[in-house]
Amino acid sequence: MLITCEHGGNTIPARYARLFHGTQKILKSHRGHDIGALNLARYLARHLRAPLHYSTVSRLLVDLNRSPHHRQLFSSQTRVLDRASRAAVLALYYSPYRSAVEKRIVQIIARGHSVVHVSAHSFTPVFNGKTRMADIGLLYDPARRSERLFCTRFQNALSDFAPTLRVRKNYPYKGTADGFATYLRKIFSGTHYAGIELEVNQRLFLDAKLDCGRIRLNILRALTTTFG
Ligand SMILES: [Zn+2]
């Protein structure tokens, strides 16, 4: 298992701070980072003894979960940079992360194993005025047997450990939409690589009435069962 977290933080490197004047509120919101996702990723990696790759640079500088030519690779703050500056952002903050994960997968496969990549994300409970109707989303490519089986088992295990959690597949996004796992599927076959995006509703991390430690534990238990 390999754990990653592309939207783990909302740091803006000093040299780009001028582009983000007056955007503190946005940076702190779900638009700047995936609230709670890095905590979850660290917790899972530690307990599963899985390698972890994460970034704490805000997705508003450059989105590590978008392909190089995607129109949302850069945000409205960074799209104004000239071509050379954008290339510098990619060279410093995008390519090293994406290549390190890719290399890690190559290494695991070279040792004769297959890889289950769990990419930890979180989503805002209300988007464009609409309440999202799930607590956890499992994003995968339905055309890939290994991903389909993994997510079915994972969903069943989650309903055993946490029956009150509403778990949906390919919600609130489709696993085949642009994303890091979608890119990696083009490089690695379904025999060697299964890419799952684990999307957690930020409500589970922000609502003081909920026990987020327990939720993390149940996700860990369900993942462990899925593997066993
Ligand atoms: Zn995310």
Would you give an account of this structure?
The longest helix is centred in the middle third of the chain and has 28 residues, at about 85-110. The strands form two sheets. This protein has a six-stranded mixed beta sheet, with helices on both faces. A two-stranded antiparallel ribbon has the order 4-5. The chain is globular. The model has no long low-confidence stretch (mean pLDDT about 95). α4 (about 145-160) links the parallel β6 (about 135-140) and β7. It starts with a strand and ends with a helix. By secondary structure, it is an alpha/beta fold. The chain contains seven helices and eight strands. It has one domain (about 1-225): Zn-dependent exopeptidases (Aminopeptidase, 3-Layer(aba) Sandwich), CATH 3.40.630. Zinc ion (ZN) binds near residues 7, 34, 65 and 121.
> What's the CATH topology label?
Aminopeptidase
Separation, N- and C-terminal Cα atoms: 12 Å
> How large is the radius of gyration?
17 Å
Rough outline: globular
The CATH fourth-level homologous superfamily: Zn-dependent exopeptidases
Short account of what is shown:
The chain is an alpha/beta fold and 228 residues long. It has helices at 24-28, 37-48, 83-110, 145-161, 180-187, 203-206, 212-227; strands spanning 2-5, 52-54, 115-123, 126-127, 130-131, 136-139, 167-169, 193-201.
What key attributes describe this structure?
alpha/beta; binds zinc ion; two-stranded antiparallel sheet
SSE topology:
Layout: E1 2-5, H1 24-28, H2 37-48, E2 52-54, H3 83-110, E3 115-123, E4 126-127, E5 130-131, E6 136-139, H4 145-161, E7 167-169, H5 180-187, E8 193-201, H6 203-206, H7 212-227
Parallel strand pairs: 1-2, 1-3, 3-8, 6-7
Antiparallel strand pairs: 4-5, 6-8
Helix pairs in contact: 2-7, 4-7
The structure holds zinc ion (ZN).
